[in-house]
Specification:
The protein has about 1000 residues and is an alpha+beta fold. The model is unreliable at about 260-295 (pLDDT under 50).
């Protein structure tokens, strides 16, 4: 074996890297187990315990210490389907943005163009701005958009002579800015929500925002949080010196009334704990974390943390803003608190007795970001109420523009802000009244900045300067512009998985994984003896590498991802089978063991590479075009293919090399399997017309079913809502359907009957409805859930295990994406096979076989829909299954074609039909072993993997059978017929 040392070195380094990456998961889980043990089942104590050690070193690798927080951020993440949570896709209403830009112009043509664009969007993949431009041009070909959008707010960007293209460009920029602002606001809200490992990302090119919140238990609260309108405000402030005495008085009061318990975690369990919301941050601050710049801390240093907390309950968690002389610093900052202690401070400040101590016009607000380099402390800002209604001095909707500039004299980043005429008037009064004081810029009750007013500002134009970085200046300008955000983001797709269903998914996933792995290990040892043991070692190494790579990439492991890994187990055996069958052939031809192993590997490389590249291309296309569960499946599939190639080709070779160098024996069969599939003489080509007829009959039956019975489209493709509901007792589907229809009454007063199906056991149903799916009301989701619960109450106790919502535009996008992913994968594979085999007949045979497989799978789903006792929905997971079937079928076909190509080179004078038959018969052992192994792996997942992926697994099982059949009885015969016709034409 060439480069043996390099391969060994790479394998060792790869293993060390995987151990390093996976170690963070082990450490994080260990800390969490300690927290569970410490809390005795109390969630509040468990959370406080984890918060208290979040910044403590828990993992020492010698050269670096890692905190629990760092370990948690590097662990292998579980998807929402495994640990429960909420997945939401939001969309900013571009319609509202455009209308707001026009100052809600009443022009008839303008509003007609808006309505036409809304209709077009349902069936178009173009963005709304492009559709609006097209619609306006159709309705008013000679119309000028400048006459509509030339407003005081846009006068610097649009003038009366601006062309329609120029106006559309401005609209496009403003829409993008609105989406960016919504994204930033959502990110800020989610950061404060208290969810572990949230994920938020912009879906580029769509104007949509994806939010994943693991472990969420209150979906209604999340919807309100995500869809709430941004509240930008300008507040007057108190000076620190004005309220320091009140702060000290509160500390004294708390000392005499609040029972201080050793661990500040216990404060959270006090009688006040019911007013602590998930918005707050929990846990405690040790005294040694406080700055030692003043006398208060010097005093505390002489006593223990426990003593200091007893003597100074408030100062133990809120450090006053004092200078080294123990005098109050200027400005509105009245104290500093560790992020983990802000909940305790909030708890104290909400007490009625404490409120009586403070001035009635005083409000407190935390800064949105930590002020210290380590990112651990927030500032508490004292806001001043100056209006009778208790609102801010100014609302943020008067801001028309804000941008980052650079100071004229110092060149430092600053923010320029422009207001409308009403805002300029209010701003002039506010700045005149607060010269030398701070004005706080507040968004969603958090302070983003509190600049000091230098002089009265008239004209509505201001510069905000400070020690800004460019990013900080950009963030502040975006925040200021959010004040004129015309509409909140609206949820257009939503999926919720309850924690109990998530745990069931983990249990079923692990169960299927262990059973499938055990089957493969035992089968390989049985069939290939010692060589089977070697392949098992490589397979275990492959799984280790897969999890290591997933962890290092920060990927999320989902239930479809587990399915991808288990499928990888079955498919990774293929490379070993190809190699072993080649070695067995070489041994049969009389070669010695060492030479047979060398030549076996060498001759198998071509088939292995070609087969895996086609599957790899399918996986990449799945990843590019897919989303959510499809992307998770594709990720593990692609990683699994790459690691299985390395394990099967190189690790097994190293083991055999070591064994043979030690003069050891290596067996590749036993007395039972030694003669299996040898000397078979099946006439595949001679009977091709029979198989053409069988395939044609199945396809015709399928087409008939597709035309009459059609397919059962899931909400992914038709829009709507689904709920999986579990009852205590078995229920009647028709009774549930009637009860829900009495609650699902549309705006026309008509009952909307949902679809109700048994989902797994008789006490669990899947409910699908389009009730209010087109409603734009932000409270619609909560209304639907309320109606659902009302309709289900007569049937006893129940639990909503999971739910999904897909809006009409999302459904259309999914359909288009699914179509193009299949078409693109077929094109890519056709071109790859053409490139590798140099004959278009091979490509045609492969693609024809793939079409054959896809049509038959669709036909079976249509024929057996409503007959089989599990879901046969056409959804995103089904498309993933189809693409996987395409990859698997091509894997099989390419291996067969590779052997045919080899025989064409070796036996050029042999009759072509006989040549192809011999090639097909010589691959039977490999084909049966790989297909049988893969099928049983899928069967295990189908039986034990849970109801959620049963339809997905059924599609793959059918695909493996049909794909194996088509590679032998469809692809090869079509290739033979077209090549023979080509030869006849040449003659």
């Amino acid at each position: 074996m060439q480069n043996k040392s390099f391969v060994s070195f790479f394998a060792i380094v790869f293993a060390i890297v995987c151990i390093y990456q996976l170690s963070f998961t082990w450490i994080a889980k260990g800390v969490e187990e300690d927290a569970v043990s410490y809390s005795n089942g109390d969630d509040l104590i468990e959370k406080a315990y984890l918060d208290s050690i979040s910044s403590e070193p828990v993992f020492n690798i010698g050269v670096k210490n890692y905190t629990y927080k760092e370990c948690k951020s590097r662990e292998l993440n579980l998807g929402l389907d495994l640990k429960g949570g909420m997945n939401v896709t939001l969309e900013v209403s571009v319609v509202d943005v455009i209308r707001a830009m026009s100052n809600y112009n009443k022009d008839e043509n303008f509003n007609s163009a808006i309505q036409l664009s809304i209709k077009k969007q349902l069936d178009s993949q173009d963005d709304f701005v492009s559709l609006f431009a097209q619609s306006f041009s159709e309705i008013n070909p000679e119309g000028k958009l400048a006459s509509i959008f030339y407003t005081p707010e846009l006068k610097d960007k649009i003038n009366s002579t601006s062309s329609n293209d120029e106006v559309i460009s401005v609209i496009r920029v403003e829409v993008e800015n609105a989406i960016d602002r919504s994204f930033n606001i959502l990110r800020s809200r989610i950061d404060r929500f208290g969810v572990s490992q949230p994920n938020i990302q912009r879906l580029e090119g769509s104007g949509r925002i994806l939010v994943e919140l693991p472990g969420v238990k209150d979906p209604e609260r999340v919807r309100k949080l995500l869809q709430g309108t941004a509240q930008l405000e300008f507040w007057e402030t108190y000076d620190n010196a004005e309220i320091l005495a009140s702060i000290d008085q509160i500390n004294t009061y708390l000392k005499s009334t609040v029972e201080i318990i050793e661990d500040t975690t216990e404060v959270l369990k006090s009688s006040q704990k019911e007013i602590i919301s998930e918005d707050d941050f929990n846990s405690s601050l040790s005294i040694d974390e406080l700055s030692s710049d003043n006398d208060l801390v010097s005093d505390s240093a002489a006593m223990s943390a426990e003593q200091f907390a007893k003597e100074n309950p408030l100062y133990a968690v809120l450090f006053p803003n004092l200078n080294q002389s123990n005098q109050p610093n200027d400005g509105p900052v009245c104290g500093f608190s560790s992020i983990k202690d802000t909940a305790v401070v909030n708890n104290y400040l909400k007490m009625d007795e404490v409120k009586n101590i403070l001035p009635r016009d005083l409000r407190f607000a935390w800064t949105v970001k930590p002020y210290d380099p380590d990112g651990r402390f927030l500032q508490l800002i004292a806001l001043k109420v100056t209006s009778r209604d208790g609102k801010a001095a100014m609302e943020g909707d008067v801001v028309t523009d804000a941008r980052t500039d650079f100071g004229q004299f110092n060149g430092l980043p600053e923010v320029s802000m422009t207001m409308n005429s009403e805002g300029a008037r209010q701003w002039k009064r506010l700045t005149a009244d607060n010269i030398g004081k701070s004005v706080a810029i507040v968004l969603d009750s958090y302070v983003y900045s509190f600049p000091t007013v230098q002089s009265e500002i008239s004209g509505g134009r201001s510069q905000i300067s400070g020690n800004f970085s460019i990013n900080e200046a950009n963030d502040l300008s975006n925040i200021l512009k959010s004040g004129k955000l015309p509409a909140p983001a609206r949820i257009i797709e939503e999926a919720i998985v309850g924690p109990s269903l998530g745990q069931e998914a983990i249990d079923s996933g692990l169960k299927s994984f262990i059973i499938a792995l055990s089957f493969v290990l035992l089968y390989m040892m049985f069939y290939y003896s010692f060589a089977g043991l070697v392949s098992n070692l490589a397979l275990l190494a492959n799984l280790f590498f897969v999890f290591g790579v997933l962890s290092s990439l920060g990927a999320v492991l989902t239930l479809p991802g587990i399915a991808g890994i288990v499928l990888t187990i079955g498919m990774s055996v293929d490379a070993n089978v190809l190699i072993y069958e080649r070695i067995r052939e070489e041994l049969t031809n009389g070669k010695g063991l060492k030479l047979a192993v060398s030549d076996g590997y060498k001759n198998a490389y071509s088939s292995i590479i070609d087969a895996n590249v086609t599957t790899l291309l399918t996986g990449i296309i799945l990843y590019v075009f897919g989303s959510g569960p499809i992307k998770g499946f594709a990720t593990t599939l692609v990683i699994g293919i790459l690691t299985s190639l390395f394990s099967a080709i190189f690790i097994t070779r190293l083991i055999f090399q070591w064994r043979l160098d030690k003069k050891g024996k290596a067996s590749f069969d036993n007395s039972i399997t030694k003669g299996a599939f040898k000397n078979t003489t099946i006439d595949f080509i001679g009977k091709r017309k029979l198989f053409y007829s069988v395939s044609s009959l199945i396809i015709l039956l399928g087409i008939g079913s597709l035309a009459t019975k059609k397919l059962n489209y899931g909400v992914d493709f038709k829009g709507g809502r689904t709920f999986v509901v579990r009852f205590v007792q078995p229920v009647e589907n028709e009774s549930i359907r009637s009860s829900l229809a009495n609650n699902f009454i549309n705006e026309s007063g008509l009952k909307m009957y949902p679809e109700v199906k048994t989902f797994g056991d008789q006490n669990q149903v899947k409910i699908t409805t389009k009730f209010l799916i087109d409603s734009k009301d932000l409270n619609t989701d909560n209304v639907v859930v309320e109606k659902l619960e009302n309709g289900l109450k007569p049937f006893g106790n129940f639990e909503i295990m999971s739910s999904q919502k897909v809006g009409p535009t999302i459904a259309d996008d999914i359909k288009v994406s699914a179509f193009w992913s299949i078409m693109f994968s077929l094109l890519v594979i056709f071109l790859y096979i053409l490139l590798r085999f140099r004959k278009w007949q091979f490509s045609l045979g492969a693609v024809a076989a793939v079409f054959h497989d896809v049509i038959i799978v669709l036909s079976i789903f249509s024929i057996f829909y409503g007959i089989l006792p599990f879901s046969l929905e056409i959804d995103q997971a089904f498309i993933a299954a189809l693409l996987t079937i395409i990859g698997y079928s091509l894997n099989d076909t390419v291996v067969v074609f590779d052997r045919i190509r080899e025989h064409m080179f070796l036996y050029k004078k042999k009759e072509f039909n006989s040549l192809v038959n011999n090639a097909l018969n010589s691959t039977l052992s490999r084909t049966v072993n790989t297909s049988l192994t893969t099928f049983f792996v899928l069967l295990v997942i189908f039986l034990f993997g849970g109801e959620v992926i049963r339809g997905f697994m059924f599609a793959l099982m059918v695909g493996v059978i049909v794909g194996t059949y088509s590679s032998l009885f469809v692809a090869s015969p079509i290739m033979v017929d077209t090549i023979k016709k080509s030869l006849e034409i040449k003659k």
